[in-house]
Specification:
- The radius of gyration is 26 Å and the shape is elongated.
- The relative contact order is 0.12.
- With about 400 residues, the protein is of the alpha/beta class.
- The longest helix has 18 residues, at about 260-275.
- Strands 1, 2, 3, 4, 5, 6, 7, 8 and 9 form a 9-stranded mixed sheet that branches.
- The chain has 13 helices and 15 strands.
C-alpha cells in the first residue's frame, strides 16, 4: 500500500446512540450516499462503525464528493486524507504532502491510536508529526487557537492523515423514519418544514394545491422547482399537483367569506391524507407556525387538524418565528424560489379579515351542506402525479 488520497466521512454522532438499531441507520446512510454519488465513479467503503472512506482518483473527484455528500442526511464531517500503511515513516510522508497543499500560520496535531498494538504512543505520534510540520511550514503550534488541525488515525491495517474537516448535513438518514405526506404551498414555510422532516429520517411525498386556470400557473411551477431542489436530500420525490378551484367554488356557495380559509385547509388536509394512503404515509407535515397568520391561531390550527382522521400532524416550524424560518430557507436554498410572486389557491375568494377563531363545531356545521367525501375523492382523482430523481438517472 502506497500513499492514497481519500475522502474520510464520519456519520452523525446521534446514530451512535441508536443501540441495536445502529447498523440499520449506518447502512441507510451509506446507501443514500452511494445513490448521491451515482455517475461520479466514486465508491464508498465502511471503515469503522461510524466512519467510511471514499478513494479519490483526482482533485475533481474530491469536489464531486464534497458537493454530493453535502446533501446526505446522517453524515456529519468530511475531510480530505491520505491513506498509508500503519508505519511512522509513511505517516510522516503523508503529513508532509498534506500540509504542503495550503498555507497556515498555526496548527495542532491530534493522534487517534485505535490500534493499540501500534508501537508508538499517541503523544509521541503528535510530537513527531508536529515537529515535521513545523519544520516544513514554519507554522507555530497552538493547541487552543489553531488555524488547522492535522489528525492521524491509526487502525490495524492502515493509517489516515487528514487536515481540516467540513461539516455536513447531520441529522438522520432519509428512509429510517418512514414516509410522510407534506403540504407544499410554494411559500417560504412549507419547504423548510419538509426539509426538517427529511432531516429526521422521513421520506416526503409532496402535495401542492393550485387554482389554475382561474389564477396564473406560477405556484405550480414554483412547487415543481422546490421539489426538484428538495429531492437532492432524498434522491427521489413524488409530487401531486391538485386542482382546487372547483372545490373552492363549491365551498363558497355555502360558507361565509370569514370562514373559507379554514374550510379550504380542512379539505386540503383530507385530500393530502387520502393521497398519502397509497404511500403508507405515517404522518402529515405542514409548515404552520403558531400565530403567524389568521389560519394559524391555536383555535384555527385545532379546527383544521380535526379534519384528519387517521394520521398525526407534524408541524416542524410551530415554535419558530418568520425570521428564523427565512434564515433556514436561505441556508437550504429554497428562499429564492419561494419569494417569486404568485397567486396561491388560498388567496382566491378570501376576505381581507378572515376569522381567527373558527371552532370545530362551526366548521362541521358549515360542512354539513357539502358532500365532503365526494369533494375529497374529486381532489384525489384529479391530482397530477410527477416524479423527480437526483442525481438524474441516465437515459
Amino acid at each position: 500500500m502506497g500513499v492514497e488520497q481519500v475522502g474520510l466521512l464520519r456519520l452523525f454522532h446521534e446514530i451512535f446512540l441508536k443501540g441495536g438499531n445502529r447498523s440499520l441507520f449506518v447502512r441507510q446512510a451509506l446507501h443514500n450516499l452511494r445513490r448521491a454519488l451515482q455517475g461520479t465513479g466514486l465508491q464508498v467503503y465502511p471503515l469503522t462503525p461510524l466512519t467510511a472512506v471514499v478513494p479519490l482518483p483526482s482533485d475533481a473527484h474530491w469536489e464531486a464528493l464534497r458537493q454530493r455528500a453535502s446533501f446526505v442526511f446522517g453524515l456529519e464531517l468530511l475531510s480530505r486524507a491520505y491513506r498509508v500503511p500503519p508505519r511512522m515513516d509513511a505517516i510522516l510522508e503523508a503529513a508532509e504532502r498534506l500540509t504542503a497543499q495550503r498555507r497556515f500560520a498555526s496548527f495542532r496535531v491530534t493522534a487517534k491510536r485505535q490500534d493499540k498494538s501500534f508501537p508508538i504512543l499517541s503523544p509521541d505520534i503528535e510530537r513527531q508529526v508536529g515537529a515535521l510540520v513545523q519544520t516544513k511550514t514554519g507554522a507555530r503550534v497552538d493547541l487552543e487557537n489553531y488555524e488547522v488541525e492535522v489528525v492521524v488515525t491509526v487502525l490495524p491495517r492502515q493509517a489516515f492523515v487528514s487536515m481540516g474537516e467540513e461539516r455536513l448535513a447531520g441529522g438522520i438518514p432519509v428512509g429510517v423514519s418512514g414516509t410522510v405526506v407534506a403540504l407544499l404551498s410554494g411559500g417560504i414555510d412549507s419547504p423548510v418544514a419538509s426539509w426538517r422532516a427529511m432531516r429526521r429520517g422521513c421520506r416526503v411525498v409532496f402535495v401542492h394545491f393550485h387554482s389554475f386556470p382561474l389564477v396564473e400557473g406560477t405556484s405550480r411551477e414554483k412547487a415543481q422547482d422546490l421539489v426538484r431542489l428538495l429531492t437532492r436530500w432524498q434522491n427521489h420525490s413524488i409530487l401531486y399537483l391538485v386542482p382546487f378551484a372547483e372545490i373552492q367554488k363549491r365551498i363558497i356557495l355555502t360558507v361565509p367569506p370569514s370562514h373559507r380559509v379554514v374550510l379550504y385547509r380542512r379539505f386540503m388536509f383530507r385530500i393530502a391524507e387520502a393521497l398519502g394512503q397509497a404511500h403508507r404515509a405515517g404522518a402529515l407535515v405542514t409548515g404552520e407556525s403558531l400565530a403567524q397568520v389568521a389560519s394559524q391561531t391555536l383555535t384555527n390550527i385545532t379546527t383544521i387538524g380535526a379534519a384528519v382522521q387517521r394520521l398525526p400532524i407534524f408541524r416542524p416550524l410551530i415554535g419558530m418565528d418568520k425570521q428564523e424560518i427565512i434564515a433556514q430557507a436561505k441556508q437550504i436554498g429554497t428562499y429564492p424560489i419561494s419569494i417569486i410572486p404568485d397567486q396561491d389557491c388560498c388567496s382566491l375568494f378570501v376576505p381581507r379579515h378572515p376569522s381567527t377563531q373558527v371552532t370545530v363545531a362551526e366548521a362541521e356545521r358549515l360542512e354539513a351542506g357539502l358532500d365532503v367525501h365526494a369533494l375529497v375523492q374529486e381532489g384525489v382523482r384529479s391530482a397530477e402525479r410527477k416524479e423527480y430523481t437526483w442525481p438524474e438517472e441516465e437515459p
